[in-house]
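hi! just following up on the protien thing from before. the input was this:
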Amino acid sequence: MKDTKVYLLDGGTLVIDGFHAFWNRGPGGELRFPCYAVLVEHEDGRYMFDTGYDFDHVMRVLPFEKPIQDKAQTIPGLLATLGLKTGDINYVINSHYHFDHCGGNKHLHSACTICHAKELEASGNCQPFEHLGYSDLSFSPEIAKKKGKELPPDPALDMYTPKFQTITGDQEIAKGLWLFETPGHTAGHYSMMVELKNRRPMLFSADACYSKKNMDMMCISSFHLDPVASLKSMQRLKDLAVKHDAELFYSHDPESFKAYQTGTNLYS
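and the predicted 3d structure came back as:
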């Protein structure tokens, strides 16, 4: 049996205000935070959990988030560092479809995309206050067409015809690879846990919890669909970590990220 390996791939940084990162708590002011993708090498194939943001999209639609990302931090560049090509990824798992978690999907043209059924629906029919979050529809040209939005010319899209596998509920999608429902930030948000041979399980919160500080204060971000559900999901992550003796990995934590192993420095 092939041992599972996990790679954290640094996709650059963005800026938000502290009052958005810590809703109604702050302190305010610019907070620069990391965005990263997770590559899981499993005996059943290669799984990518989230794909970060697309620099051109952010500069075009959300330039106030001040993206910093070089070519090596794009999905093709990150995979090349590991000696892989974009066609080597078998599955993409999207925690949700906010722009900073699906911007690289278009490069993974051979992969099947796994997501929550409610999330795929929400991405094409979101609430008015969610429109910036769901602004990058390159992950599904079909949804963009239905919404009457023309995608900018992009060579990656010429090869990209996504295949979706929608699921609901908690799922073990491969041996030791779990998706847990953690709604609130969005309608169909998933967090992921990976069981490994030589260490504690890794529990990736995605945007159900931005940072350890959010968790310590039980303070959600301002970007959410349902604040009560968001808090319940944060508590669920705490409970799951205890139940499985798992280590929590947060989505946008500038302090925790400094200690994470990234690039070729893998977990197994």
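The mean pLDDT is 97.
The chain has ten helices and eleven strands.
cheers
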